[in-house]
Amino acid sequence: MKRNYWMMMLCLLAGGIAGCSDDDNGPSWKELFDKEQALIREFMKDKSPKDSVVFDVEYKKKKFQDVAYVFNYSTDNSKKKPKDGQFILVNYTDRALNKVILDDTRLSTVGGEKIEYPKYPTGGPVYEQVISDEEVYSRFFKYFSEGTSGSIILSSLLSASSTYLYREYKVEKIIEGSLLDYEYELMDEFLKAKGFDRKNSIEVPSKMLNDTVTRIVKFEEISSASILPTDSVTVHCNGYILDEFSDNFNEDKLRAVLKMDEEKKETWKVSDLIEGLKVGLTEMNVGEKAYILIPSGRAYGKGILNYYYQYVMPPYATLVYEIEIFNRKPNAK
To answer: What are the coiled-coil residue ranges (predicted)?
Structure first.
């Protein structure tokens, strides 16, 4: 692996679990690291089947080895396994070695134990890309077949955290072909589930990225004032993440990214919105209601992190907005 990556990881390790202490006031980062490795080896004694992966690392001209483990995975070779470059949809649970739950993509509260800052507040499954064996997590994804589970243990060095990581994965799906094609399939399935024919949708190609299309499906067309890119609009809107695990795209099951009370309205400046909403709204008229379906490339791309390093918008989210326009207000150009 690249040296600068390891230097960054080692600094995190030193700062996280050892406070970079090399003086007489406490144990050094290397002593704490060795203690952590001993705890992991003890935990792994009765785990089967198991594989270990050894990573060679160097810090302050000292070379040593970091061992990670993968176990409890399916050995059925008839099931598909991910390849380099593919995206997978995964759920996971992070635990301490004493089984205390630290994070979970499926629920923010598991077994009555509240997770204060889950990495994905909207839940999962979430996209991960299998980059290559040079990337730590990608190395382990290749053990897990589609539809199966498995576990990994990474030291704080490898997980870039303040403690070791005991993660239970489930690979929900391996995305065949391009991620964009999969997003379009999700859009088609959503429209079908809602009783709309894709042929009746308005498709707006991106001017910047000619392989992305925003789709708009109107509940009914109304002859009234059209929306301009410079306008402000008063709307009622609910927004959701599309995925195929949401019980036939029922809005009660979809992960909400925007939820307004029934009587609530908001005023938005069109030019301030994400690309997909900008072009979607300018295809609508005052009084109309529509679904606007947006691929991740015209939405939030690789996601949005907040102050607590949570993905308030998860990476590669395909979005659908159910939106009704009540009024428009021209703005000065």
So the answer is: none
Write out pLDDT tens, residues 192-242. Answer: 999 998 888 999 887 766 678 999 999 999 999 999 999 999 999 999 999
Task: At 69, list the tokens.
Answer: 């483990």
- Within 110-198, residue ranges assigned H as helices are 136-141, 156-159, 179-193
Question: What count of Cα atoms within 13 Å lies in the side-chain half-sphere of residue 206?
Answer: 17
Task: Give long-range contacts, CB 8 A cutoff, 24+ apart: 19-24.
Answer: none
State pLDDT tens for residues 79-105: 899 998 999 999 999 988 888 888 999
Which domain, by its residues, includes 200? 179-329
Closest by Cα among 43, 30, 62 to 157: 30
161/321 Cα distance (integer angstroms): 36
Whether residue 41 is found in the same domain as residue 55:
yes
**Rounded Cα–Cα distance for residues 131 and 7 (Å):** 20
The first and second tokens of residue 113, run together, are 């134990």
Q: What single letter denotes the amino acid at residue 300?
A: Y
Do residues 230 and 324 share a domain?
yes
246's tokens: 């949401």
11 and 71 housed in the same domain: yes
Looking at 127, 144, 174, which one is the last position of a domain? 174
Which residues face 275 on adjacent strands? Answer: none
Rounded to a whole number of angstroms, the CA Rg of the chain reads 24
Give which of 180, 210, 212, 204 is closest to 281, Cα–Cα: 204
- CATH number of the domain within which 236 lies: 3.10.50.40
Question: In DSSP terms, which residues pair with 174 in a beta bridge?
Answer: 88
Find, among 142, 287, 151, the residue nearest to 223 by Cα.
287
Q: Do residues 89 and 11 share a domain?
A: yes
**Residue of 205, 322, 302, 309 whose CA lies nearest to 252:** 322
**Cα–Cα distance for residue pair 8/26, rounded to 1 Å:** 23
